[in-house]
Design goal:
Layout (H helix, E strand, L loop, with lengths): L13 H20 L6 H11 L2 H11 L5 H11 L13 H19 L3 H20 L1
Helix pairs in contact: 1-2, 1-5, 3-5, 3-6, 4-5
C-alpha cells in the first residue's frame, strides 16, 4: 500500500512526480516479468528492454487514447518539463521527454492512491507490448 499524500500531490513538480514514477514503473515491470525458474540475467535483460526511454515513449503512445483530460494535461505539462541534465545518448530528446511524462503520470497516480487506475494503465501498456511482439 503506497504512502498516500493525496492532498499534496498537486504541489509536486512534474519532475518530482517522474522521480517517483520511475521507480513505480520499474517495480511494475519487474513484478510482471518475474518467474520462479527465470535466470537473473534473463530477468535483467527483459526489464531493461521495457524500462528505457524509447520503450517508455512507446508505452505512453499505447495509453494516450485512454487518458482522462486531467491525466492528458499532466502528461503535456510533464513532457514540457526540462531537467537540468541532458537526455541519455541512447534515446532522442522526444523519447526522453515522453518517458518523463509517463513516469510523472505513474508517480501522480501512485502518490494520489489511484492504484486501480495505475494497474489498468500498466496492463494496457503490457497488452500493447505483447501485441507488438506477436505482430
Amino acid at each position: 500500500m503506497p504512502l498516500r499524500i493525496a492532498a499534496d500531490v498537486a504541489a509536486f513538480s512534474p519532475l518530482q512526480l517522474a522521480y517517483i514514477g520511475d521507480s513505480v514503473y520499474d517495480l511494475l515491470v519487474r513484478t510482471d516479468i518475474l518467474k520462479a525458474d527465470a535466470k537473473m540475467h534473463c530477468l535483467h535483460q527483459s526489464a531493461t528492454q521495457r524500462v528505457n526511454a524509447a520503450a517508455q515513449a512507446r508505452a505512453l503512445k499505447a495509453i494516450a487514447e485512454h487518458l482522462t483530460e486531467e491525466e492528458a494535461d499532466l502528461v503535456r505539462r510533464s513532457r514540457n518539463a526540462h531537467a537540468k541534465h541532458q537526455a541519455p545518448r541512447s534515446s532522442s530528446c522526444a523519447e526522453y521527454n515522453a518517458a518523463t511524462a509517463l513516469e510523472a503520470l505513474l508517480g501522480y497516480l501512485y502518490l494520489s492512491g489511484q492504484m486501480e487506475r495505475l494497474y489498468t494503465l500498466f496492463l494496457t501498456i503490457r497488452d500493447a507490448k505483447q501485441e507488438d511482439v506477436h505482430a
